[in-house]
Amino acid sequence: MRPNKSFGQNFLVDRSVLAKIVEAAEVSANDEILELGAGTGVLTRELAKHARRVVAVELERDMLALLAKTTSKYANVELLARNLLFVDPADVFDARPYKLVANLPYYITAPTFRHFLESTNPPRLLVVMVQQEVAQRIVAEPGDLSLLAVSIQFYGRPRIIARVPASAFYPPPKVDSAILRIDLQAEAPLAAVERDTFFRVVQAGFSERRKQLHNSLTHGLHRKNEDIRAWLAAADIDTSRRAETLSIEEWLRLWKHMPPT
Predict the structure, then answer these.
(1) pTM (2 d.p.)
(2) Which residues contact 20 (CB under 8 A, 6 or more apart)?
């Protein structure tokens, strides 16, 4: 089976990395696991040895046929032939808790996080393999935050478990990867109906790189600059700050002081 470049496929061949992923996910005999992009099933089988149920999602038809063969001995593995962005966890797990494990191709990393973190039944824990540079962006602290980092740290605490060298894959990608663990909060800071306006503010703040916050919010939200300055002052945020310097708590405070349109 050859990796499909259009799907960003690189097969994991270093078995020591598999053990690190399973350990990072703290997979136990009572766990239900959602594995995205199961591929050849090398990680699926390791998860199945420890979990009560593994739902392995794979889209490519040829890969699915191979996946069915490699996991046939595991009665606790279920295959789901679907684009991962069309998987509704509530359909798969109802309201039961589950953990998400994935080796994510770069081009779909951000949409995947958003899809599952915003779902009606988000995972309790995520352990994903992403490009090392992306992992470092996600775990960044105020002063070096990005829209991606805020979008994930809003929901939970990310941390890098281990670096994975390019040589652990076939074919080896051009960059190293990292195992990233995200522990989600029991509840998101805002209700679902409030998050749209919150992230609209955050997106506006990051819409113009290296510009002061009052300028990026003025242009991103199409409001008068004097109104934006007054809003920032009410939230006790210096108008000369830049978006990457604000903590999650400061973004929430800014949102709570948001004047009506």
Answers:
(1) 0.93
(2) 161, 162, 179
Tokens coding 69: 């063969």
Q: What is the pLDDT of residues 171-222, one digit of tens each?
A: 899 999 999 999 999 999 999 999 999 999 999 999 998 899 999 999 999 9
Q: How many distinct structural domains can be found in the chain?
A: 2
Task: For residue 237, tell me if it sits in a domain.
Answer: yes
Q: Find, among 40, 214, 246, 50, the residue nearest to 140 by Cα.
A: 246
Q: Which one-letter DSSP state was computed for residue 96?
A: -
DSSP string computed for 155-179: TEEEEEEEEE-GGGEES--SS-EEE
Domain final residue, candidates 126, 154, 184: 184
pLDDT-derived band at 7 (thresholds 50, 70, 90) equals: very low
- Same-domain pairing of 161 and 222: no
The rounded distance, in Å, linking the Cα atoms of 136 and 157 is 13
